[in-house]
């Protein structure tokens, strides 16, 4: 069964494995399969679920709401996000303006079928809206009882510090950041993690398996497997393209004997690796089949010895991306 950690400097506990439905619900899998997978997650002890209004242009929230209907609300930690354009994508259908945030939370609650979410997150930083306006709107969402905590996704160290200062003034519980993080993508380690530790924020990390590359199923010199994420534009194929290099795939295959020695599958090793970072509260993992959930949960509570971590670093060598400057390139400078 999955273990739990505190989210930031708060009293909220979340499951070490968070069930995410970015490319699955409303897109990659049908509703009945999605619901079965969510129920498998609940059976495995996962209580934390992450979605966003933009996933499948709001359909993912609807499916997750259906899947969780009838569950004890107090026993769940439900996360969603706001920023990317949704609906007809008019001039105010995206960003972090007061208008979009307040309309966004109402839409998300309706689709999810709940009165509140546990964590409401800014999906990216909005350079076109004053941060003061954004944080005041988030504070009002909390005061209205529509969200219990506030978080962000893919913000830089400086943006986190500025937001934390305003959150303190506004007395709003700002607890987390949701960045990409994996053995292959470690750009948050240079600045974002130290700033977060200083501010009392946790990371809820996405793509701990590097879009599936760390599963080992993509082999050097071989065509990508039929039906894999790399062949499906709706499942984020463009995200994985940059990782399908011969040097990366060759290095990843060196992880298999390490995983075997630990008694883990390669996906389990990848998830366990991100959880070794004490600033990581949870690893966000999706699934398209119930059996994948049980496998993912086996990574919770695993301790990787220092020698194993050293062996992983040696295996991957210089294919690991560590440049902290890349955290400044994630949020669009103008609204999409």
UniProtKB/TrEMBL annotation:
Q: Entry's InterPro entries?
A: K_chnl_volt-dep_bsu_KCNAB-rel (IPR005399), NAD(P)_OxRdtase_dom_sf (IPR036812), NADP_OxRdtase_dom (IPR023210)
Q: Which controlled-vocabulary keywords does the entry list?
A: NADP, Oxidoreductase
Task: From the UniProt annotation, give the residues forming the signal peptide.
Answer: none
Which Pfam families does the record associate with it? Aldo_ket_red
Q: Where is the NADP-dependent oxidoreductase domain?
A: 16-315
Family of this protein: Belongs to the shaker potassium channel beta subunit family.
Q: What is this protein called?
A: Aldo/keto reductase family protein
Q: Which organism is it from?
A: Microbacterium kribbense
């Amino acid at each position: 069964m999955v273990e739990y950690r505190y989210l930031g400097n708060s009293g909220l506990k979340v499951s070490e494995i968070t069930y995410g439905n970015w490319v699955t619900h409303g897109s990659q899998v049908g509703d009945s399969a999605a619901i079965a997978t969510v129920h498998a997650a609940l059976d495995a002890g996962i209580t934390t679920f992450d979605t966003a209004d933009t996933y499948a242009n709001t359909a993912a929230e609807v499916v997750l709401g259906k899947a969780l209907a009838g569950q004890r609300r107090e026993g769940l930690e439900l996360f969603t996000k706001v920023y990317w354009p949704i609906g007809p994508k008019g001039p105010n259908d995206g960003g972090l303006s007061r208008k979009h945030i307040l309309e966004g939370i109402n839409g998300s609650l309706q689709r999810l079928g709940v009165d509140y979410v546990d964590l409401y997150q800014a999906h990216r930083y909005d350079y076109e809206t004053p941060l003061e306006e954004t944080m005041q709107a988030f504070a009002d969402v909390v005061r209205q009882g529509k969200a219990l905590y506030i978080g962000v996704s893919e913000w830089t160290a400086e943006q986190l510090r500025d937001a934390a200062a305003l959150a303190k003034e506004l007395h709003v519980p700002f607890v987390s950041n949701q960045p990409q993080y994996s053995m292959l993508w470690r750009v948050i380690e240079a600045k974002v993690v130290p700033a977060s530790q200083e501010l009392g924020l946790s990371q809820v990390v996405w793509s701990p398996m590097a879009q599936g590359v760390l599963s080992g199923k993509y082999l050097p010199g071989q065509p990508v497997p039929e039906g894999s994420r790399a062949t499906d534009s709706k499942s984020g194929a463009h995200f994985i393209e940059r990782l399908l290099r011969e040097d990366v795939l060759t290095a990843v295959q060196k992880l298999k004997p390490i995983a075997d020695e630990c008694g883990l599958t390669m996906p389990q090793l990848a998830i366990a690796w991100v959880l070794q970072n004490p600033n990581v509260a949870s690893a966000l993992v999706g699934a398209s089949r119930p059996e994948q959930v049980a496998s993912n949960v086996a990574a919770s509570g695993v301790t990787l010895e220092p020698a194993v971590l050293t062996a992983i670093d040696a295996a991957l060598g210089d294919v690991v991306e560590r440049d902290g400057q890349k955290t400044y390139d994630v949020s669009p400078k103008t609204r999409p």
